[in-house]
Amino acid sequence: MSAARPPLPSLNALRAFAAAARRDTLHQAAEDLHVTHGAVSRQIHQLEQALGEPLFSPRGRGRVLTPRGRRLADALHAIFDDLSHTLEDFRRDGPAQPLSVSCEPTLCLKMLIRALAPLKADTGLDIKLLAAGGPVDFARDGIDLAIRRTDFPIDPALDLYPLADEMAGPVLSPALLRDHEGAIGHLPRLHSQTRPEAWRTWCRNSGLRPTRARRHVFEHFYQTLEAAQAGQGVAIASVYMAAADLGAGLLAAPHGFAPDGTRYVCLSPLPIAQDPRRRIFAAWLARHMRDLARPVPLR
């Protein structure tokens, strides 16, 4: 009777190790996996304990794969690639699934969710939305398309469909604008940790010199928009995120909107032009964003 095989290490530990082997630092691997640096470190430590040997060796201030660690990493990368292709083939041959779309959180909340009904009516597409930003792991998260702003390096292996130039400008509540007779220069400025350069970029592109004003910093971009709507100050907004609130009279844009040097794109691991659903979605969204960027009344 043959001896029982030892139990396999956890899948999470293997994924953490494979990500760490592919990237230069554990911080980068943690970003890829959407977990903390500590979680990746713990998973690798657990894997090394399960295997009974180290997979990395120290070098200077960093560390490198051991020869056996490199062999394991290469094998795992091939296994995960095969698994990804297997699942892709399984989904393709099975019942039609909703198109899975990852979208930056504020754009998802303020624009894309509101567009789902007309999108369905015009195209017949069923969409599954995931709110996320930054680099995308399409295979791990089962994502077909990702909507991103080009404010980080885009993997050149991905297919890219341009959607719209980012258009940004200051917004505030109409009541606050009336109370100050249109003069917004000294009103509190609402900043977001996720777009820390928004005000500086807008002042530079508009040719207006920044004035001294109080600062209120929020963690997320959408919080600055809510604070602006509540009359707490002036925020720099994307026209695509503010359009519905402008149309409803909840926000005012006294200086309009102008390009900030970035743009929104659709990203896909497969050629968008060769997949009807991807192509229809990207083309519809590009038209929708063009409509939203048309000049709005300056309330």
Shape: globular
**Low-confidence blocks of residues:** none
Element-by-element helix/strand order: HHHEEHEHEHEEHEHEHEHEH
Percent helix among the residues? 40-55%
Q: Name the structural class.
A: alpha/beta
Number of strands: 10
Helix tally equals 11
Number of domains: 3
Q: What's the CATH topology name of the largest domain? A: D-Maltodextrin-Binding Protein, domain 2
CATH-defined architecture of the largest domain = 3-Layer(aba) Sandwich
What does this structure look like?
It is a single chain. This protein is an alpha/beta fold. 45% of the residues lie in helices and 20% in strands. It is built from eleven helices and ten strands. The strands form two sheets. An eight-stranded mixed β-sheet has the order 4-3-5-10-6-9-7-8, with helices on both faces. The chain has a two-stranded antiparallel ribbon with strand order 1-2. The longest helix has 27 residues, at 67-93. 33% of the residues are buried.
